[in-house]
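[Archive record]
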Amino acid sequence: MRVALVQIDPYIGDFSGNTNKICDFIQKAKSERCDLVVFSEMALIGYPPRDLLDKPSFVRASRRYWPRIQEASTGIGVICGVVSENENAPGKPYHNTALFFADGKLITSAHKRLLPSYDVFDEERYFEPGDRAVWVDFKGERLGITICEDIWNVADYLPRPLYHCDPLNELGAAGVEILINISASPYHVGKAAWVGELLKTQAQQFNQQLIYVNQVGGN
C-alpha cells in the first residue's frame, strides 16, 4: 500500500481555504498513485480552535465542507481530522474526530479517546472522549486509527499516569497491522527526537508499522 503523509498548516476557521488545500493534496496523492492519504488532527478547522467551539454555528459550518472531501476521495482512501457533534447525550457537545473516506464514501470515524488537560491543552472542556478503539480493513491491511494523545499513554512521556485505558492495547488485540496517528502536537526544542523515540517504542511494543502525521506551521 502506497501512503501519502500530508502535514499542512491549516488556518483556524478557514474552512474553505483548508478544504481547498486538503483536496489539492488528495489530487496530488492520486497523481502519485497513492492508495491512502493522511492529514493531521483537525486539519479541516485548524488546531487549537479553543473558544470558537463555544459557538455551535462554528462546528455546523465546518461540517458543510465534509462532502467536498468525501467526493475528492473517489479512487483513494482519505483520513482527515475534524470536529464532529456528540450525538449521544449526556456528555460534552463534540468529539475530536478522524474521518475515513474511501471511494467517495464515509467508511468510518474514530473519536479521540485520551483528552489532554495539562500544559497548553484543555480538550476535556469541549470534547467527549471516544468509547472504543476503531480499525478498518483497507487494501488488504488492518489499519488502527488514533489521534495524538491516544498513543501517549506510556511511562516517562506524560507528566504522570493520567489515563485508565490504553487504545493501543485494544488495537493490538484486534490484529491491527498498521497504526495511524494524526496529531497537532506543538513544537518545542528537541520535540522531534523525543516523539520519534515514543513512536519507536510503541511500534516495537506492538510489532506494528506506525504512520504519524503532525500539523506544521504557526497557526
About this structure: The radius of gyration is 16 Å. The beta strands are 3-5, 36-38, 77-85, 94-102, 105-111, 134-138, 141-147, 178-183, 209-214.
